[in-house]
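Obj.: predict assembly geometry.
Materials: sequence records (below).
Method: joint structure prediction, all chains together.
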Amino acid sequence: MLEGIMIGLTTALSIQNLLFVMMGCLAGTFIGMLPGLGPMSAIALMIPIAATLDPSAGIILMAAVYYGAIFGGSTSSILINAPGVASTVATSFDGYPMAKSGKAGKALAIAAYSSFSGGVIAALFLLVAAPFLASVSLSFQSTDYFALMVLGLVAVAAFAGKGDMAKALLMTVIGLMLSTVGTDQTQGVPRFTLGMIDLVDGISFLLLVMATFALSEALMAILKPKDDADRLKEKEASENLGSMAVSKAEVREMAPVIGRSSVLGFLIGVLPGAGATIASFLAYGTEQRLAGPEKGKQFGKGSVRGLAAPETANNAAATGSFVPLLTLGIPGSGTTAIMLGALIGYGIQPGPRLYIDQPEIFWSVIVSMWIGNIVLLILNLPLIPYIARVLAIPSRFLLPLILFFSLIGVYFVSFNTFDIQLMVLFAIAAVILRILDFPMAPMILGFILGGMMEENLRRALLINNDSWSFLWERPLTLTILIIAALCLVAPFLTGKIREYRARAAEGTSASGD
Amino acid sequence: MPISKDRLGGLLLLAFCIAYAFLSQQIRLLPFQESSAFHARTMPEVLSVLGIGLSLIVIAFPGSKARVELAGHDWLKVVLFLALMSAYGLTIRPMGFIASTSLFLMIGFWMLGERRPLYLIAVAVPLVVLFWVLMTQGLDVFIEPLPTFLREGN
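Observations (raw structure tokens):
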């Protein structure tokens, strides 16, 4: 492991890669701060640049953008109560009241220290967990991978909430369907190309991500323009931040919260589908319960604990989500799905072999997480008063620029104008589906995993002489599939149990009356 | 009767899944492939069944009864921006990167309310030129900057 860390340090600490970490953190913070644009859009916008770099530098850049975007999202949550992404919603619960009471600088500093600690502690866990899981997963076969992918897709839908589960599953299937467009990999048969030569190679994942995230986010902002009061609020918030000093008493209050939330965030991040949003809400709820009645009342009114907990947990979960990506090649979230797509673009197949065959990539990603967090703390935090001015850029300039960067990002990779037209088509579909509250992340996950899933299923059937019995005969495959089935059933079961309990409680109180 | 968001989305995706199912039957297979347990149509067929089934579930048991609100949205502007993006795709080659992108940005800024010609030009043109220099000199990604009639060989 020490040897690996040294390889990672040598790669990540090269001047070129250090520059990419700094650039990525800054660009990520900048993009993440724009309301509506989250880490997924930020990473997607960086892919065309990353594609021109060597794999290590490209992945380091994207990881840095990821952290930067989470940090940027927290900043807009705190300053203007406009979380760029769901994972920073909990941050606004206490961050925004703190900012409203004239302590915006302090709130940003607490968020930065918590993010830093969460990220660094979780990277330490990753250092231990990833090689261990990679060595275990070396014994995995195609059948297990197929089952793991089913679990990953189902888990994302299962965490979407009871009412939205069917919608999330449907969007996953739509993503899987889109992944079948193009020439079939083994039999060379064209599928769903509609006779168009431009579709023979399939749909580019960058195109789909840009159209469904960056483009559609910008179009949604055009569709629902902000009023003048909101714009004024953004301008004022970006200009008056106040002091960034954090007192010793506040540090003492934060320390145990950070410790607990790091562990919680990391563990939830490792689970496929759960991700930073659930981690941040869970950490917030846990700390509120642990705080006791008196301190608990301060939650929602500018509590230090209430701000530190979700900020630590969402960064720890972001780090945790790299575990299944690096060790199994299965993304646990939409963001890591985009990174998986980028890795595949480099010709790298993440999974247990990555740890053995390309240790420099494996370790440099882990080491760059520490460096990225340090950069965020020492570079971004002092620069926040200046970076926050981005919130004051008029949307009439910003939105066409986002559209331009999205379109040109895809065009610069393929140099095919058909791609721009296809993006427009997907953007229309994405805007309609967003208005109808259909989630986009499961579709991207389905799209990225679709090809691999089909390939693994095909291989599994080949090994098993065209028999589907591997689904129940191989214990590991069966176990994973049972967990996937439980993920599907659990929300219904817990809902029914809750209903039953409520009815029982009503019955008891009625008979008591 | 107004339709809920979930039901409308479910119906649209049901139509997509039915079209997908229909097209999946158009995938050509060689005679020996048809008898194998897994061929180019297998995954699309499974996905068609799943997609149609899930769409029907969403339509039959919508998670929310919220309705689509069309008021308060600037639909015309979105349609115009979609047209602008499509036109950008059509003009980027014949007009060259600098002219087509500058025009795209200037029209975009104008559509969102910037009316001062100096601002339109001063923001768009230098940014596009800087971006082109960065891409070609910094990242070695070449894109034709000039319109067709100004290029060498014409």
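Conclusions so far: The two ends of chain A are 67 Å apart (CA to CA).
To do: check interface contacts against the pulldown list.
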